[in-house]
């Protein structure tokens, strides 16, 4: 049912290294590897090319890795929690809630920076949290999460928040606002900076640390609620932990990068396809694979449409969906 | 005060031209008696309009300014929700341009509707034409295209002399501005931002390039992008390293744009505090106020 994970983990780390090295070269300043090596050893911020490398390219790469890892793990958790192959990190309405928060900010505030704080990511985080709480409240009864109810509540609340966001965008008088909303909704790492990276990094590290202890329960839960209960898993408690961790991870990523789609749906499937449903290192590998996938997509986005790059959400879908369909046709993807 | 004089004089000139556009010189021949005009607009659409259109309107704020400068203002039957200049237009009935109030527009029975490329969708144009309303669209890539557009409107509306008078005066004014000695030998490279997140700027293929050239500078964006207002990365702007940044006052951008993107404080424009706000309508609209916008830009470039 499961395969040895070590070779896969090593391969994903190797791929990550290759992608990072490639990613360091992509940008407006022409930089060869000698220059990159010199910059990393002796960083001189007075040189604009070195500044771009260390303050812009590197944080962008790290942000893509963290976002990919976070969304992939979050998707894995959601699929386990509702025991449904179609679940993704945005099941709880996180994406549409975050979008509504950001759109509210773009539409209603004339000044987006107050007291030196750029408000859209905070508004997106607040929108994500409020929506998630609402969906969870609607999807639970007497302290127990009901997966079917949660799924429906997620769909309904997502539709409502998307409609509200659409209404605000429609009423927007500025073409610039509209473009910002559209751009935001497709995800981007362009605004990445060292100052915000600790949040998704801490969320992902904590989630992985916590879930190492839950990996076994998670795998059993994937086999079905009744079987999990028979095997001694505290299903209700595990579900609550999964919801909180997934919501925190997704909220963090969406607030900073926008709702990048498809990673959280596809990567967990790929993980189980490669390592099996009950693999002991599934979550770790899922995080690494998600990180690789999203960084790869960002590099492609920047190469295809320089300098700003295509919105990364477009690339994840354009390149991810055909691959996913291929997998589906080639071999039945296990849940 | 001296700097204000040319502005006042050009304002008076424009007023004089606008005054000349009142309904005192309608052609004596009834419209129905003359053959309609078969014309091709700037986008290559062929359309037929009456010899002397009596009911006209525009779907773009800039085009409304063009019509007010050339047409008999009594023939302008409506404005859109964004048309706000000259102030007299505010008295006209409002027809929503986005989403287009098709029924309201058709009910006004316009002889022809004017618009600008990129403002009215091809779909809306096609639907209007299907309903029997011809749509004439203009395109401007250089400042001279605005003057040509004014003359085209003058011809279509039976007022070529008024249009020519206006464009002659604008051309003379623009020439004077262009020929003013520059304070520095090299033209400062100016980056004009239109939006902060993501960072959208005036691209090489916008009217801004020509306006800033006439003002004595040059667009810092020289690379050709497919979109007129491309999104740029911080790294790209660092590499451009513009001498001047337009998009808001130094204080405003320091507390917003440069707070969001502190890495960009390294650019020359920030280091020398050559960061300026500009009148949005003047900069964005291809209108008869083009000389005014060039003068405003020139004033900024000459600020020590």
Automatic annotation (TrEMBL), chain A:
Keyword annotations from UniProtKB, A to Z: Cell membrane, Membrane, Transmembrane, Transmembrane helix, Transport
Q: Where in or outside the cell?
A: Cell membrane
In the bilayer, the protein is annotated as: Multi-pass membrane protein
What domain of life?
Bacteria
GO cellular component term of the entry, any: plasma membrane
Classification via CDD domains = TM_ABC_iron-siderophores_like
Task: List, alphabetically, the SUPFAM superfamilies matched.
Answer: ABC transporter involved in vitamin B12 uptake, BtuC (SSF81345)
Membrane-spanning residues = 61-78, 90-109, 115-138, 150-171, 196-214, 240-262, 282-301, 308-328
For whether the record's keyword set contains rRNA-binding, the answer is no
Q: GO molecular-function annotation terms? A: transmembrane transporter activity
Offer one Pfam family short name for this entry: FecCD
Q: Which family does this protein fall into? A: Belongs to the binding-protein-dependent transport system permease family. FecCD subfamily.
PANTHER family recorded: ABC TRANSPORTER PERMEASE PROTEIN MJ0876-RELATED, FERRIC ENTEROBACTIN TRANSPORT SYSTEM PERMEASE PROTEIN
Name this protein carries in UniProt: Iron ABC transporter permease
Source species of the chain: Hymenobacter metallicola
From TrEMBL, chain B:
Q: Which residues form the Fe/B12 periplasmic-binding domain?
A: 55-304
**Presence of the UniProt keyword Endoplasmic reticulum in the record:** no
The region annotated as signal peptide is: 1-19
Q: Which residues form a coiled coil?
A: none
GO terms for biological process, alphabetical = cellular response to iron ion
UniProt keywords (A-Z) are: Signal
In terms of domain of life, where is this protein from?
Bacteria
Q: Which organism is it from?
A: Hymenobacter metallicola
Spell out the protein name for this chain: Iron ABC transporter substrate-binding protein
Q: Name one Pfam family in it.
A: Peripla_BP_2
Q: Which PANTHER family does its entry note?
A: MOLYBDATE-BINDING PROTEIN MOLA, VITAMIN B12-BINDING PROTEIN
Q: Thylakoid: is it a keyword of this entry? A: no
């Amino acid at each position: 049912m499961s395969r040895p994970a070590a070779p896969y983990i090593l391969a994903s780390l190797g791929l990550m290294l290759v992608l990072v090295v490639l990613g360091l070269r992509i940008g407006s300043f022409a930089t060869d590897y000698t220059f990159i090596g010199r910059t990393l050893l002796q960083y001189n911020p007075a040189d604009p090319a070195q500044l771009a490398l260390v303050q812009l390219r590197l944080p962008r790469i790290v942000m893509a890795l963290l976002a990919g890892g976070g969304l992939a793990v979050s998707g894995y958790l959601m699929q386990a929690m509702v025991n449904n192959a179609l679940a993704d990190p945005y099941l709880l309405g996180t994406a549409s809630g975050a979008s509504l928060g950001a759109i509210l900010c773009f539409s209603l505030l004339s000044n987006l920076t107050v007291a030196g704080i750029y408000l859209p990511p905070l508004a997106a985080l607040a929108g994500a949290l409020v929506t998630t709480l609402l969906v969870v409240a609607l999807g639970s009864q007497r302290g127990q999460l009901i997966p079917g109810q949660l799924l429906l509540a997620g769909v309904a609340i997502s539709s409502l928040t998307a409609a509200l966001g659409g209404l605000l965008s429609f009423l927007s008088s500025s073409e610039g606002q509209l473009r910002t909303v559209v751009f935001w909704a497709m995800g981007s790492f362009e605004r990445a900076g060292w100052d915000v990276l600790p949040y998704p990094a801490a969320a992902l590290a904590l989630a992985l640390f916590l879930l190492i202890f839950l990996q076994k329960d998670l795998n059993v839960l994937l086999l079905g609620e009744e079987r999990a209960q028979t095997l001694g898993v505290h299903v209700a408690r595990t579900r609550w932990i999964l919801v909180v961790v997934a919501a925190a991870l997704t909220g963090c990523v969406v607030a900073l990068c926008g709702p990048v789609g498809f990673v959280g749906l596809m990567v967990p499937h790929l993980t189980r396809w490669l390592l099996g449903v009950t693999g002991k290192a599934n979550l770790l590998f899922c995080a690494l694979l998600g990180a690789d996938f999203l960084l790869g997509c960002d590099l492609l986005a920047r190469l295809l449409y320089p300098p700003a790059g295509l919105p990364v959400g477009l690339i994840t879908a354009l390149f991810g969906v055909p691959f996913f369909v291929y997998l589906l046709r080639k071999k039945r993807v296990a849940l | 005060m001296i700097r204000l004089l040319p502005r006042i004089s050009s304002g008076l000139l424009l007023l004089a031209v606008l005054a000349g556009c009142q309904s005192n010189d309608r052609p004596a021949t009834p419209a129905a008696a003359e053959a309609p005009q078969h014309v091709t607009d700037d986008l290559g659409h062929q359309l037929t309009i009456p010899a002397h259109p009596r009911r006209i309107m525009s779907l773009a704020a800039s085009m409304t300014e063009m019509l007010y400068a050339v047409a008999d203002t009594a023939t302008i039957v409506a404005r859109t929700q964004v048309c706000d200049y000259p102030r007299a237009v505010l008295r006209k009935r409002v027809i929503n341009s986005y989403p287009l109030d098709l029924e309201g527009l058709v009910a006004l029975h316009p002889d022809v509707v004017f618009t600008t490329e990129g403002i009215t969708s091809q779909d809306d144009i096609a639907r209007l034409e299907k309903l029997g309303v011809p749509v004439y669209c203009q395109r401007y890539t250089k400042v001279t295209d605005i003057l040509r557009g004014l003359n085209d409107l003058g011809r279509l509306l039976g007022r070529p002399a008024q249009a020519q008078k206006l464009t002659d005066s604008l051309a003379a004014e623009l020439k004077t501005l262009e020929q003013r000695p520059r304070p520095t030998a090299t033209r400062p490279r100016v980056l004009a931002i239109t939006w902060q997140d993501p960072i959208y700027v005036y691209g090489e293929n916008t009217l801004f390039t020509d306006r800033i050239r006439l003002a004595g500078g040059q667009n810092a964006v020289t690379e050709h992008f497919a979109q007129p207002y491309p999104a740029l990365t911080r790294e790209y702007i660092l590499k451009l390293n513009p001498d001047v940044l337009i998009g808001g006052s130094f204080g405003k951008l320091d507390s917003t744009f440069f707070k969001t993107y502190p890495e960009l404080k390294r650019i020359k424009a920030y280091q020398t505090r050559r960061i300026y706000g500009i009148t949005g309508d003047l900069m964005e609209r291809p209108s008869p106020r083009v000389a005014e916008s060039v003068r405003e830009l020139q004033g900024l470039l000459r600020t020590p």
